[in-house]
UniProtKB/TrEMBL annotation:
The chain crosses the membrane at residues 50-71, 77-99, 120-148, 168-189, 201-223, 229-251, 272-293, 317-341, 371-391, 397-415, 427-445, 451-470. This is Amino acid permease. It comes from the Bacteria. GO terms for molecular function: amino acid transmembrane transporter activity. It is a multi-pass membrane protein. It is found in: Membrane. InterPro entries: AA/rel_permease1. Gene3D superfamilies: Amino acid/polyamine transporter I. GO terms for cellular component: membrane. Keywords: Membrane, Transmembrane, Transmembrane helix.
Length: 490
C-alpha cells in the first residue's frame, strides 16, 4: 500500500521534479565517451582549430553585414557600440571558459544549464540556442547576395533583386544565401577535421582583407566625421550595441566542440579568450576606419558598405572585387562554423531525449551527425533565402543574450554547490564578473525593440508546447525513478 501511495505522490509531483532534475557532469562525460546508441564524435581539434572556429563564427558578421544598419543608429560612436557589446560578451566569455573546462561536451550552455539548474531551464536554454544558431546562420547568409553582386558588377553582370534579395527587401528568393548554406552543409557532413581545415584557411583570408581595408580606409581618414560623436545620444549607442551583439557569438560555437577537441579542458578556455581578444580588436579598428573614411550619414542601410568604401577611395575596381570575394568567403566561414555549433547542440539534446533521436545519429565513417546536419542545413537554407536580414539579426541577439545570462548564473551555482570540482580556468574577480555578465545581458536585452520581444515570446511559447508534446515524455532523465535518479546523481 505504501508503495502505491509513493507512486501516486511521484505522479502528482513528477512534472515539478522533472523540471528541476539536474544531469551529473560525470554522466555527460561518459555519454560523450561512448556516444550512447548514436555513435561517437572524433577528437581531432587542437587549440588552433578551436580558436579558428570561434573566430570563424564571429569575425566578419557584424562588420561585413550589419555595419550599415548599426551606423545610422549610433552615428560615429558605432565603435563604442562594438566596445560595449564586446565587453558584455567578454564578461560572458570568461564564464564560458570556466564552464567549458569543467564540462567538455558538445552541449555548450544547454549542458551547463542542465548540470546546474535542471531540465526545465536547460530546455529553455537549448531552445534559445536553436534560435541563436539557426537564425544567425541565416542572417549572415542573407548578406552574401549583395557581395556577390559587387563582384559580378566588375564584369558588367548582376543578379536581379528577385534572385539576390529575400521577400520584403525587393526580391523573391536569395539564391546566393541558399547556395552558401547548402555548401557549408555538404562540407560539415564530410567531417569536423576537414571542415576545420577549410575554416582555418578562410579565417586567415578574412583577417587579411580586414587589415587591408583598415590600411586603405585610414588613407582617407577625416577626424571631422566623428563630430558630433553621438548624434542619436547614448540611447542610440546602446541600441546599436544590442543590434551588433549577435556578432560576438563565436566563442559559444567553439564551446560546442567539446567532444571533438583533443584536450578540451585545457584548450577550450584558451581558444575562447584568445578569439574574443582578436575579434574585438579588429571590429573596433574596422568601425573607426570606416567612419573615418565616410560621414556616418553616408552609410544608410547598406549591406556591403566596406566594399563601396574601398571602391570610392581607390577608384580601382579590382580592389573592390578582391574584397568582395573575401567578404563572401568570410560569410561562408561564419555560416560553416555556426551551422556546426547548431548540429552539435541538437545532437546533445537528442541524446537526452528532448528532441528526436535522428539528430544524435553519428556516421561511423565520417563521425559526424549526417542526418541531423542535412535537416538543419536545409531548414536554415530556406530561411536564409526567404527572410530579411533585420528581423533575423535582432531575433538572434535576444536568444544569444538569454543563453549567455544563464551561463553566468551557472558559474555562480557551481561555485557554491561544487566548490571542489576541478577547474582548468577560473573566472577572475568572482562573483563580480559573472554577476556583471548577467546584468549586461539583461541590459542589452532591454534595449531590443518590442517586435523582437514579441518574436522571442512566440518562440518561447512554441518551445513550451514542443516540450510538453515531445520532450517531457521522451526525456531520459525524466523516465528515471526517483531512486535511479539519486543513484545517477551520487
Amino acid at each position: 500500500m505504501s508503495t502505491l501511495t509513493e507512486a501516486r505522490e511521484d505522479s502528482k509531483t513528477s512534472l515539478g521534479r522533472q523540471l528541476l532534475r539536474r544531469k551529473a557532469i560525470t554522466t555527460m562525460e561518459s555519454e560523450a565517451a561512448d556516444g550512447g546508441s548514436g555513435g561517437t564524435l572524433r577528437r581531432s581539434l587542437g587549440v588552433l582549430q578551436l580558436t579558428m572556429i570561434s573566430i570563424g563564427a564571429t569575425l566578419g558578421t557584424g562588420i561585413l553585414v550589419i555595419l550599415g544598419q548599426a551606423v545610422p543608429v549610433a552615428g560615429p560612436a558605432v565603435w563604442i557600440s562594438f566596445v560595449i557589446a564586446g565587453v558584455a560578451a567578454l564578461l560572458s566569455a570568461v564564464s564560458y571558459a570556466e564552464m567549458a573546462g569543467m564540462v567538455p561536451v558538445a552541449g555548450s550552455s544547454y549542458s551547463y544549464s542542465y548540470a546546474t539548474m535542471g531540465e526545465g531551464t536547460a530546455w529553455v536554454c537549448g531552445w534559445c540556442l536553436v534560435l541563436e544558431y539557426a537564425v544567425s546562420v541565416a542572417a549572415v547568409a542573407v548578406g552574401a547576395g549583395q557581395y556577390v553582386n559587387e563582384t559580378l558588377s566588375v564584369v558588367g553582370l548582376q543578379l536581379p533583386d528577385a534572385l539576390s534579395q529575400p521577400p520584403g527587401s525587393g526580391g523573391l528568393v536569395n539564391i546566393p544565401a541558399l547556395v552558401v548554406v547548402l555548401l557549408a552543409t555538404v562540407l560539415l557532413v564530410r567531417g569536423a577535421k576537414e571542415s576545420a581545415v577549410v575554416n582555418t584557411a578562410i579565417v586567415a583570408v578574412k583577417i587579411v582583407i580586414l587589415v587591408f581595408f583598415c590600411a586603405v580606409a585610414f588613407t582617407a581618414f577625416n577626424a571631422g566625421h566623428f563630430a558630433p560623436l553621438m548624434p542619436m545620444g547614448a540611447a542610440g549607442v546602446s541600441a546599436a550595441a544590442s543590434k551588433v551583439f549577435f556578432s560576438y557569438i563565436g566563442f559559444d560555437a567553439a564551446s560546442t566542440a567539446g567532444e571533438e577537441a583533443r584536450n578540451p579542458k585545457r584548450d577550450m578556455p584558451r581558444a575562447i579568450l584568445l578569439s574574443m581578444l582578436i575579434v574585438t580588436t579588429l571590429y573596433v579598428l574596422v568601425a573607426v576606419a570606416a567612419v573615418g573614411a565616410k560621414d556616418w550619414q553616408w552609410f544608410g542601410d547598406s549591406e556591403a558598405a566596406l566594399v563601396q568604401i574601398l571602391a570610392e577611395i581607390t577608384g580601382q575596381a579590382w580592389i573592390a572585387v578582391v574584397f568582395a570575394i573575401g567578404a563572401v568567403l568570410a560569410i561562408c566561414s561564419v555560416v560553416l562554423t555556426v551551422l556546426y555549433g547548431q548540429t552539435r547542440i541538437l545532437l546533445t539534446m537528442s541524446r537526452d531525449g528532448l528532441v528526436p533521436s535522428v539528430f544524435a545519429r553519428v556516421s561511423p565513417r565520417t563521425h559526424t551527425p549526417v542526418a541531423g546536419t542535412w535537416i538543419v542545413g536545409i531548414l536554415v537554407a530556406v530561411t536564409a533565402a526567404l527572410v530579411p536580414l533585420g528581423a533575423l539579426a535582432d531575433a538572434t541577439s535576444i536568444g544569444t543574450l538569454f543563453a549567455f545570462a544563464l551561463v553566468n548564473i551557472a558559474v555562480i551555482i557551481l561555485r557554491r554547490t561544487r566548490p571542489s570540482l576541478p577547474r582548468t580556468y577560473r573566472v577572475p574577480l568572482y562573483p563580480v564578473v559573472p554577476i556583471l555578465g548577467a546584468v549586461a545581458c539583461v541590459f542589452l536585452m532591454a534595449n531590443l525593440d518590442g517586435i523582437t520581444w514579441a518574436v522571442f515570446g512566440a518562440w518561447m511559447a512554441a518551445g513550451v508546447v514542443l516540450y510538453f508534446a515531445y520532450g517531457r515524455r521522451n526525456s531520459r532523465i525524466g523516465k528515471l525513478a526517483e531512486t535511479e535518479y539519486q543513484e545517477a546523481r551520487a
